[in-house]
User: What shape does this take?
Amino acid sequence: MKKSIYTLLGLVLFMTSCQKTPVDYALVSGRIENGKGELKLMSEDRAFSKTLELREDGSFSDTIRTKFGVFFLTNKNNVTRLYLDKGNNIIINADAGDFNKTLVFSGEGSSPSNYLALKGEVWTDLMGDAESFYQQNETEYKERNKQIRKVLVKTLDSIPGIGEDFRQKEKRNLNYTYLSALGKYQDFHAHFAKKPDFKVSDGYLDELKGVDYEDVDDYNFSSSYRQLLESHYRKKSEKLMESDSLSWDIAYLKALADVPNETIRNGMLFSHAKNNITFTGELEAYYAIFKSASTDKDNNAVIAESYEQLRALSEGNPSPKFVNYENYEGGTTSLDDLKGKYVYIDVWATWCGPCKAEIPFLKEVEEEYRDKNIEFVSISVDQEKDYDKWKAMVEEEQLKGIQVIADNDWESKFVTDYLIKGIPKFILLDPEGNIVSSNAPRPSSPDLKKMFDEFL
Assistant: This one.
């Protein structure tokens, strides 16, 4: 009898040990021929980022554990979308010299990624030139977007091996993309058609009235659905700006605090706060709204860390320093070299459109205050590969002031100490090297001259 019991127990243990353990990861591997520099995998919502080791022969492999969905894979100027789900084993091969034409996805679960790559090509061909696309009249524009949606649905259905769950979510995503296109038409048409007072006709946006703004599955899957949500709550924030005389960032955060669904509310609050908390001019109020509205402990810890770092950058505190940054005129410049004068710092890059838009205004301000006790410093965060572009732009645009380039682009200590998440970024320091404003007004803002006149 004992022998039978032990035999049965052994059989149970054997069967239990052979059961398949649930997989909570995806495998990515492959080879980027002629690939140089960093190979980075980043989630579509930017919440996850990981640098993949690119070996000397261009091969790479890694295990990914995170919230799954659409990701970007980047290597220098090459970028592609891919879709990852738990249990996938995606193999990616391409030649960096002709990335898009040589890109191939294979392996278990690769069909959605092949669809996304094809979708990008089809979309680009159907859209054509952006200026002409948005210059179309209302009827033409709407019909073109309906056609794009129809073709992309056919493209999706033509790819073998795509699971039904992905297929249905993507079809909803394509519809959200169509609706989002309708929503942005007024502003884009006004810009490209040079009609600043243009308004869409009554009823043009009626199709957006049926959108359910509390669908968690679509929020997690669809970037176009998230865009619709952002647009929806920005309209609510505009009303708060008018009624309560709030700044745009405080008004938008207050609008997000009223999102009914907890998951969506937490996601939207975090998505906005992780970068915009570094730009707000009302740090204490901004953080208080976020803290009272967000219930996600992990998100709250990230924003709390940013808040504490930004508190150290409040008015009157010593400024972080840059040391021996290469000066366009020759030699190097450190922040300590400028003590005794106010210092207005512009953090920019040659590829940044909004940065370049500020150049004429910056020149005007520099000229008006050139005899005052102030130095104007422009710090480029261009990468090493764009060094020559930086030199050329300084010369071509005849940029004045002190022109320096950071020692490690976005990873430079001065940039990370100031928690700079976007550019242009403007900073004003006093003659002792203390912070007057870590979010100083732009040169194009009338508030800058008011600030200068107060101190100078």
In short: Residues 71 and 311 are 33 Å apart (CA to CA). The domain at 325-455 is CATH 3.40.30.10 (Glutaredoxin).
